[in-house]
Structure formats: C-alpha cells, structure tokens
Amino acid sequence: MNEIKDSLKAIEDNYKLFLQQQFTFIGALQHTRENAHDLIRPVASISQVQSYMDHHCNNLTDRRILTMFLNICNDLSNLCNKLETIHPGNNKTNEILERCKLLLNHSNDMSTIRAKYPHDVVNHLSCNEARNHFGGVVSLIPVVLDGVKEWLSNTEKLPRRTCNVSARRAVCEKMASQDAAARAAITPKTPSVQPEAQTSVINKDCVQVQGDKHIRKKHLSDRENHCGKHKSPWKPPGRHAF
C-alpha cells in the first residue's frame, strides 16, 4: 500500500505542475482544434486530445503541454490497474475503481463531468469554454485523483488481504524455510569425529598392538629360560660291562 501512495503522490506532483499551466493547455487545445477545423464539438475524449497532438500540433509548447496531459492520464490508468492486484476490495471499492477506469478509457465521453469544490479548474474558464468546450477535459484528472483517494480511504478500513502472487510466494517460501529449520533443530545430530581425534585413536591402537606383541615376546622368552633351568643335561649312553 505504501508503494501505491508513493505513486499517487508522484502523479499529484506532476498534476500540480500541469495545473499551473492550465491556460497554456487551453491555448494548445484551441490551436489544434483550429488546425483540425473542429471548433464546434467539445473536447470529449482522451483519444481526441491524442489526435490533436499527433496530427494538428505545430509548435513545441503546445506539444509539450498536451503530452504532459496524456502522460498523467496514462499514469493514472496504470495506477488503477495496479490497485486491482493489491487488494480484492468490496462492492464499494470495486465500483469506485471501475468508475475511474471508465473515465480514463480513451474513447469515453468526458464532456459532461465537472470537478467540484475544492477544485477550481472550471472556474478559470469562461462560461462558454466551461459549458461547451473544455469543462470536461480540465475536470478529468482531478475527478480521477479524487476517486483513487476515495478507493484508498475505503480500502484501508478493510481487512488486509493481499492478492499479489509474488508476495504470497515469498510468504510461502519463508514458512517453508522456518519449518525446515525447526525440523533440523528437532532431529538429533550424530556426533562427528574430528580428524585429530581419529589420528589419536589410530596411534593409540598402534601403541596397544605393539605393546601386546612386546608382552607376548617377553612371555615366550621367560618360558624358554625357565625350561632351560629345569632340564637335565644330555649324556651319551654309557658302556655296560659284560
């Protein structure tokens, strides 16, 4: 939700710059309408403004301000599409979002919408301009901004249930890692024998074997000596007298 608020704030900052140039915007629309020989009908859709800029704009100032208007509308459209992935909402928030998306549709007729207080964009127009030509096009952005803010205000009152797939996957991976760590903590670990300890055991065994051999050798030597002391010396058989 913080990301949405940051995006909204960036759009509002751009709109403030655009708002300071409203007279330049109206002048650009007037010039392009004259070039298009389209002075009777009101400016009623985003696609109409796009057509004026693409085919009937003759100077950089007019092109710059018309491009700025179209970019803000595009940013708002992207933001509305993003809102759908952040929170499922309810009937009220979904209705607000659908209304904003409809207003930003390039072919939607916006000639009848009017921005109300505290917005004063319509008040800066003459009665003829506001009623017959530019009242809708200058009201589009502030009306959509109010709709997005209303969506945020109502959504923050609802239980927070994210529908973002990547966020849900991240939560699942975190839970899986925690379960693995818990299982590892429960499973008894087999004590490992260090190489130094293994060498010590081997050396100890060798010493033991050598000691056993020495003991056996000494034992055999003692037996031979013992037997030599008690054995009668051998004498050749004597001659008998007949």
TrEMBL record:
Record organism: Coturnix japonica
Positions in coiled-coil regions: none
Name of the featured protein: Sperm acrosome associated 9
Pfam family, one: SPACA9
PANTHER family associated with the record: SPERM ACROSOME-ASSOCIATED PROTEIN 9 (PTHR32455)
GO BP terms in the entry: axoneme assembly; flagellated sperm motility
InterPro entries: SPACA9 (IPR027818)
GO cellular component term, pick one: ciliary basal body
Residue stretches of biased makeup (Basic residues): 228-242
Region described as Disordered: spans on this chain: 220-242
One GO MF term attached to the UniProt entry: calcium-dependent protein binding
